[in-house]
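hey so u asked for the seq, here:
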Amino acid sequence: MAGEAAAEAARKSTQDESVSAPGGEPQFPVHGDDRAAAFFDLDNTVMQGAALFHFGRGLYKRKFFRTRDLARFAWQQAWFRLAGVEDPEHMQDARDSALSIVQGHRVSELKSIGEEIYDEYMAERIWPGTRALAQAHLDAGQKVWLVTAAPVEIAQVIARRLGLTGALGTVAESIGGVYTGKLVGEPLHGPAKAEAVRALAVAEGLDLSRCAAYSDSHNDIPMLSLVGHPYAINPDSKLRKHARELDWRLRDYRTGRKAAKVGIPAAAGVGAVAGGTAAAIALHRRRR
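ran it, structure tokens below
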């Protein structure tokens, strides 16, 4: 299963390598609670826009594909930003495009390029507020994971640069260190994210009722529903409605406005980006 494969890859990679709430609410995250962790969606939660699009821009600059392919990436990004939701058809098209582009290239090459692309296009698009939420968990001694449908190599770079524990992402198949143009399992999206988080929690000995999850998309309601502390960050309309009905905490960094129920103060929103000292996820490879 895609979730189990992603969780196992993340655990192996990390083995290799708090603030008071307003209104008198209990302190969260709880310092020293090693059975708690935090899980963050990536696109429009940690980063403005879609990581895959920014990665595509960097590959185009390096002549990995043609102008018409870039136009397709641009259309997908425009849809994402205007609609504010993850459209499955557009996401599938983006993944298929990315897989065809990297087919035949070496994994090591894409990892190296990913580092450059992060500096060129992604670093300035990290939401400071969400970054500070992740740092609060790290400062409390908790592990923090990205959980994203984006390719694992992209998630790997971002997690390491932000000093996070690791990442769960969609895994592209490689044989002999070369991409085949296929996936290992299914994309890590929707229910698959919840499956991956559940598998990781079992392996890490986490108590999900003490964990937190953060996302902008209603597609991640299965993941958010797993934990005791779900947060809707920059939520789409469906997630905002769902969160309000269930009294989940809300935060919107797109306009600077605050939701009524917030567990971690906005003062943390201007925190500096931490150095990338934690290990990130290693690519899970299928070998013959």
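The first strand starts at residue 37 and ends at 40. The domain at 28-265 is CATH 3.40.50.1000 (Rossmann fold).
lmk if thats what u needed
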